[in-house]
Automatic annotation (TrEMBL):
Native source organism of the sequence: Sordaria brevicollis
Any GO BP: methylation
Keywords assigned: Methyltransferase, Transferase
Molecular function via GO: methyltransferase activity
UniProt-recorded name of the protein: S-adenosyl-L-methionine-dependent methyltransferase
A family per Pfam: CMAS
PANTHER family: PTHR43832, S-ADENOSYL-L-METHIONINE-DEPENDENT METHYLTRANSFERASES SUPERFAMILY PROTEIN
Lineage of producing organism: Eukaryota, Fungi, Dikarya, Ascomycota, Pezizomycotina
Family of the protein in this entry: Belongs to the CFA/CMAS family.
Amino acid sequence: MGGFISKILDYLNDTWGDTVLDSGFLPHFILRRVIRRELRRRLDEITPPFPQKVIDSVSARGNPALAAQLEDLASPKFTRMPGAFTPSSSWSRTLAYKMNFFETVRHQPIAIETDAANRQNYDVSTGIMENMLGPRIKYSCSYYSTGHETLEEAEIKMLDLYIERLDLRPGMRVLDVGCGWGAASLYFAEKIPDLEVVGFSNSRTQREYIEAKAKEMGLSNVRVITGNITNHEFDVGYFDRVLSVELFEHVKNYEGLMAKMSRALRTGGLLLVHHFCHRTTPYHYEDGWMARTFFTGGTMPSSDLLLYFQKDMTIKKHWWLNGYHYSKTLDHWLENTKTRKERMMPHLAETYGDDMAAVWHTRWKIFHLASSEMFKRDGGETWGVTHVLFEKPERRTVASIDLVSTDILRSGSERT
């Protein structure tokens, strides 16, 4: 069976791979095996000693010196040294890679490929999301505290967790950046009527849905702004709280976005960031089916990524949510996508055209399947979700961590 899976995987990686996936021909049990093999490949790429593909990428991104050092550490001369594969030496290489990653993104725009992200995930027919997601249309990880929740219950449990961790209270002004279809914005406005809730989205479709839903629910304390996060500026010091749910995965310049959110907060205000992540190592989605179809320009952050960008905000608390929370969320979405196909098809045709509706139904199923497999790998402890709570200090007291990858690499080499 392993050889058969390898042949399928090789076939899917050539120019005909997308055609085979789009056909819906492969049964899910085969797809799961292929996905698990791909996940092993991904882990090999981000685990020291790094393959040549990663070293070439580091060099292409403008750091040939670090690339040469990574290549040297992966050479037979180094790997034959006593202690070459000790955790400290392996971790030294990981840190060198991470420091280069963090330094590189400081010089990029806040976000890239925003139009592609919109087309792939956010400016799609609301009818697709209403049938695929839960009742709150929460297009992000939900919370399964017992493991037996329905999707509706899990959505609400995560929304309540946001309220608890942000310490939302009547009279506050709350900004929901990247608000999606308004799951959090509408829930906050409904649950705490004295809040002023402002959602921010780059999608006209989402804004229209939230406005109509707020009117239907009789809510007058929620409004939506549309714009591009890369150039939009919020009123300085206006908000008491800011929430960002699964926005940072579409971001490159984290320092720039953190500064923007800090400016929007009053002194002492709180920012809660919810993002999915790899436990230790960030990477960009630069090739492969996921990058082409659903995540163009996207990034997989590491769980500690934002700890390196505290120039304008100070961390207060940091939580890890096991990947099974997202895996179960995605399994619920997959089941909805399969069982509600007939209800979804007109909306898929509206978004993608009659000739591509069935193809995109298949693609959404593969997306849920692949993502679920990723988040439950290794008992949910390799990929998961993190919540990071920041406070805007009275004055800037925290400097960003000095990212000098060569020093870290050198110190790691000396220990070995």
